[in-house]
Write a structure and sequence with these properties.
Length: 81
């Protein structure tokens, strides 16, 4: 799967104009952050028995704020993105 996604990303980066590729990157990073924040909240409640290898202060408030601000940043992207 890593190879498939890597080849697809390379093809997209090679074929799209640089502005369009930058738009995809600019929306992809906040979306990945949203997924990470959601995962922190879900795992803390559904699997509290898992070892916590890192600390998240103010869970679930801080991850929820991260989700909100990331979505807010995404709203500034062009609708085509």
């Amino acid at each position: 799967m890593t190879w498939v996604l890597g080849v697809a990303a390379a093809a997209i980066a090679g074929l799209l104009p640089i502005g369009d590729a930058a738009e995809l990157t600019n929306i992809g990073i906040p979306l990945a952050f949203v997924v990470g924040c959601v995962a922190v909240i879900v795992l803390r409640y559904r699997r509290p028995d898992l070892p916590h290898t890192f600390r998240t202060p103010g869970t679930p408030v801080v991850p929820a704020i991260g989700i909100e601000f990331s979505i807010w940043l995404i709203t500034f992207r062009r609708p085509v993105t």
